[in-house]
Amino acid sequence: MKLNHLNLCVNDLAEAQHFFEHFLGFQTKVQKSDVSTVMDDGEGFLLVLTSMGEEPPKYPNGFHVGFYVETSEKVDEMYEQLKAAKVSVGNRQSSESDPWWVYVLFSCAERHYV
């Protein structure tokens, strides 16, 4: 069995779509008017964004979406790109037990932590 897709409910579909395209490299595959969009990461994973309209989505504390990147330098690159675009980012962090585990928490347009 292979995970096929993840659906994220968002307030502003166009803003969330732009964020995932511009910062995370997703490509829109199917646009269903202003209700939902299906995006592809280029490696077989699909992200579905669904508009909740004015009702804000409710996610539990600690909810986040994780991405793997090849090197800590790529994490640093993305960190600087997000900061330059005025995206809310936390401090770059790493694990003492695993020097390759480097991460940055940031909020996309809908305030999902990634």
From TrEMBL:
The organism's place on the tree of life at top rank: Bacteria
Coiled-coil stretches: none
VOC domain residues are 2-114
Q: Which Pfam families does the annotation name?
A: Glyoxalase
Name used for this protein in its record? VOC family protein
Q: Which organism is it from?
A: Fictibacillus marinisediminis
